[in-house]
Structures are given as C-alpha cells and as structure tokens.
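Reply to dn_fold:

You asked what the input looked like. This is it:
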Amino acid sequence: MKKKYFALILGFCLMITNSFVFSEAIDINETTMDEIVNRAMVNNNLPGLEVILVQDGEVIFETALGESDIMRNQAMTLEQSVIQTGSISKVFTSYLLLQWMDRKNIGVVDPIEPYLPLNIKDKTSLDGLTFANVLTHTTGITTLKADSAVSESPITMYKPSFGVEAHEFFKSYKLKPVIEKDEFILLSNVNSLLAGVLIESISGLTYEKAMSDLLETTFGMDLSASMVAGETISNAQIIQNYSVSGGRHEPLGAFRTLYLPSDDFLTTADEISKFMTFMTGDRVSDEMRDAFFTRQVGSFSGRSYGMPKTQYGKYEVFIQDGGIPGSNSRLIFVPERNLSLFISYNSNQLGAREEITKAIFEEILPGYDSVTVHETYEAEALERFVGVFSPVNASMESIEKLTKIIHQVRVVENDQMLLIDKMEYAPVSETVFYNAKNNVYAEFKTDESGKLKALIIGNNVYTRASFFRSIYMEIGLLVFSAFFNLLAWIVLLTKWSNMRVNRIHDTPRVVLMLHTLVMTALLSFILLVSARYSLWDVIYGGSKGLAAIKVLGYVNALLIIPALMMFNRAKTDFRWSGAMNFVFRIQLILSVMLTIWLWLYNFI
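and this is what came back:
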C-alpha cells in the first residue's frame, strides 16, 4: 500500500514538473512551412537555406534547400554542410563556463581575478569584475574585432590554440572600459575571450579539449566535437559563402576567426538540432535552464547568463545571431512555448533571417506579434532628450572607432513624441519610450541628479555626442577640406608662373603643390573608404584603402610644417594676392584639423 501511494505521489510530482517544462504542442503543417521557407529563399535570392524547429525536445520541422556550393553543385544538407555560425559560439562558451563553475563550486558573484593567468592579471581594466559580469556582458569593455580573422579555411589550415591567440590578444590591447561595470549590457567579444581564458584556468584543459568534451558527452554533437578538436573530417563540406547582389552570387574568400570562444563555431544543422533538443527537453538541469532562460539583466531587452534577451510581440525570446562574410545564422529559444528555431543560409543578406523568423512565427504562433498597448503618458521636458547619440560599443583602440560616427542616431522632439532615427517613439514613462510599429523600447538612463547618462535601444547603448563629434561636424570638416584643396589647385594651375618667391625660388610653390597633391589623395581615399566602409575590412586587419589612408595621413602630417614655412616665405612676395594667401592659410589649418581627426579615429 505504501508503495502504491509513493508511486501516485511520484507520478503527481512528475506531472507537475513536466507542466513547467513542456508546453502546448504546436501543430505543424509541413506543406505550408515548406512554402514559407521556399518563398523566403526565392525572395531573398539565397543560394542555400536550412531551417529547424524543435519543441519539447523533439524536432517538429526541418529542411535544407538549395546549394552549399553553386560552382561544385553541392546540395545543402542537414548532415554534411558545415556551417560557420559566428557569434553563436558565445552560447556554447557560456554553457561550458557555467558547467565548470558548477563543478568547481564557483559562484557567479565571485571575482574572476584569482582565476586569470599571470599575463592578464596586470590588466587594471579587469579589476573587480565578477563571473556574472563576464556572462552577462556587463564588464563595460567594448567588443574589439580588429585583426580578429584571417583569409584561411577554418578546417584545412593549421590553427594555433586559443590559449596562444588569447595570450597575444591580451598583450596587445588595454581594454579600457567605456562605461561603468554592472550598469549596462554591452555585447562584447572580449567577454567571451575572457570566458575562454577562465575555462582553461578552471578546468586545467585547453579550451578546445574542454569544448570538445562538452559537445560529445553532454549534447552528443560528435562531429562538432571533432571539428573543435581539429581532427580531419570526411564526408563533410564547409559551406561556400556568397555576396548576393541583384541576380548575381559572388563567392567570397575563406574566413577563419582567431578567437574560437567568441566566433565561428563549426557545426551542421543536424548537430545543432541536438543542442536544441537538449535545451528544450528533460535532460537539461533546472540550474542551467534557469541560467539561460530565467536569470536576466536588463528591462525591456537584456541578457541571461547564456543569451541575449528581447521581445518578439507578446513573447520573451532569447536570440543569438551569428555570421561571417557571406553567411548568416540565427538561434532562438521561446521559453514560454519551449520552442527553438535555427536558421542558416550562405548569403550576406542580413534582413533575410528576420523575414524568415517572422514568417515562421506568424504561422506557428498566431498573434505572436500583437502590439503592447500603453496608456497615454504625458511626459515633460522632452527637449532634455534631444540630441545626437553615438554607439558605445566601438573599440577606442582600433579603426572600429569610426562606427561612433557612422552609426550615430539623432533624437528630435515631435508633438509629445520623440523621433529617434525618424521613427516615432511615444512616452510610456518619464524616461521610457515605445515604438509600436517595430515593438521596440528606447530607455534613457539618468543618474541621481537627473543628468542623462545613456540611451538604450534594444541591446544597443548610446551616449550623447558633443557638437564637435556629431556626424555633421565630421562631414563639414571633410567637405571644407576638399573645397579649399580644390581652390588651392585652381590657384596652383592659374598662378603657377607667378608663385616663385622673389622671382627665383621654386621651393615654396613645389612644397605647397606637393602638400596639395597629398591632401587630394588622402581625401579621395577617405571618401572611397567611407562609401564602402565595412567592418569586415577591420576584422581582416584593414583593406588597401585603410592602409593608403594611414600612409597618406602620416605623409600629410610630415608636410604640414614644411608647407607652413614655405607659405610664410611665399606670402611676403608682392605677387601673392590676399586671396591666394587666404586659400593656402585655410588649407593649412584644415590640414592640421584633418590630421587630428585621423588621429582621433585611429587612422594614424
């Protein structure tokens, strides 16, 4: 009798437990899903596409369409097409660190300093940081992507271990925080690198060995484990990445990241479905589920210990995007429905993953995109939020700093609303504004005195840019420099015969012409690089355009003093008119300002 009651009680407990883990099953119409995926592939001109849906530990839909390599006629397959998942690596690194922290009884509020190698401990920027800071990306340290990848195959070339690469990385950069720790989420590759270093220190294993063990023993991802371990893989082909423009598919070169914990985890769709089934099934521990889908920082958007958090209509979702030049992936978990979605395709079309996500969610989660209705809130003194804001997450130590200009947002007051990048945001509280069209919140953070500290939109943090650092001032400097450089050429071409000093000295006019020539080349390359600026150029360690700007910037700086000396001699000649003096004087002033600008943004 006692055994009978015990069995009933145990069954009741299991039923209660499962009611928290498992949710109402989603009814999948495979024909409709096939149509949705095919339409997305055609509309975005994708060479190949893979989609997997998992609920309650079971794959409920999967498909692979198109080609992984057009030239070789290789079909995209779930089992054999090797995906470079980019930043999805961060999810696995977080899991691995949490696992080893649990094994070694390390708390998330414990400081990381005792576990750092000697060559990193002297970084004062890491003082006082905890494991929670690293896991939730609240260290205040920006992402640093400069020189973080090379044009090599990730599976056929010799690769130094992560420990070797990490040693060189932390030796090269100061990693000075740009905002206070604990206060703001700043998604950063550096945090994942720190996580990798901590994993090696705590486990006593190389990152590759520790990750390989996790993939094989916990998730059953044997193929991925072998690739992480650097073993030779047969019957698997890495997907060819493409730049898609119009009807053309241009194959891009090979890509290999230097820092595995943050980027470029190699896997297949079939392998990553094993992780998805694990995380939505009954094998994942309550502690790990809590770490990934419950413990969060941030309000309207934010991060758990494992993944970034955002809002998709009425659902709270955890989403990690990743990609390399010409390939994109997305991994999503919807805890409320115990659902997971994975998307991967070999194209540079960033918008395709969002289009596919929304189309699938509209089909399987009816009403998911219902807009939140807020009561009208009468906010006061909206003018205090008006201004230009620059993104914080840009390395101050590399050319990445240029993104502080390129990705600025302008906030304007408009009839009891704010226009942020020309999108309407209505006040829902004193410092929070809501865009109903995209279901996005913008939150202004202030200090105790009410002074504005930051603007948060989604997972992006912005700070107010000074008038002299706004994009309009930056463009103005370049435009005026180009204008007066053109006037200098007009003077040189029309007055050349009268520009000898005291009728005999050629040196002043030759030096001024040389300075004008260098400025022309410098401004031309700045225009070229600005028009085609790509973060991938930074990641690969610069382009020929960036290299040319650096060389010309130094040459221009060296010519300023000789040009100034020659100008001071030339302007004493009676044949130099006031207009000629004015043109070259302003040109020299702008040349000095341009040199300072190049230095400020790490061009030189």
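The chain has 18 helices and 24 strands.
Hope that clears it up.
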